[in-house]
Predict the 3D structure of the following.
Amino acid sequence: MSHKSLSLKTAAVLAASTLMLAACSSSDGASLQEGAGQDQESSPQQDVEEEGAGQDQESSPQQDVEEEGAGQDQESSPQQKLEEEAGVSIEPGVASCEFNNELEDHQGDGSGVSPYPDLDRAELREEEEAYVVTFTGEFFDPEVLLIDDSLVSLQVALSGEDFTAISPTLMTEFRNGELDGTGTFMDQEFHDQDTDFTLEDGKFTATYAKDSPHFEDFEVDMWTPDVYFDDGDETTNPVSYRCGDGRSWDWEPLS
């Protein structure tokens, strides 16, 4: 019951106490009528229950936050959408992405369609003493890549927190069907390594030791896989493949 209703009831009681004894009957009738009116009015308990029911129908601040969060979960940020399109997977010490097999107009014969078998995925894995690069897909076959007059460059460019700073690249190259070099490259300097690489059955893998001087005082923050292939045919242009739109992808180091 509201404060206003309580005040009226109190006033009625005080007024009734001052009435003459002869007017008690009329006062009793008035009291009955007042009681009937009070029955029609909600009690304090009813007011509380009705107010509670209204609150049940209205969402609480916590519910609003949860519903807003659910809406945000359904919407992806632009970066998340790009990662989804490129099949990016990021975990501590290992990241992978899906190669984009579409060619740009200036590559190949200009049709945008690759004449070579498809590339599948690129993976960078960190071990205690090395970084391991793995590329998969039917493209990675000696019969496709290791031919006369060809040039093949299989790379993973690394970058630190300062994306503009000079940083190392993990690189293995073949020329005219033979190994031309494997190791790390930085600032126009190539550091040869025994990467124990393999190229067979739709898979390339190479292990780049962290003892390279190019890793001194360097911490990986992003990575970019890149495959370059020139089959030596002068009637077509070289081709290159990256993940998604070719941008660099985030990296999480080993814990």
User: Anything to note?
Assistant: DSSP finds six helices and 13 strands in the chain. Residues 136 and 230 are 19 Å apart (CA to CA). The first strand starts at residue 89 and ends at 91.
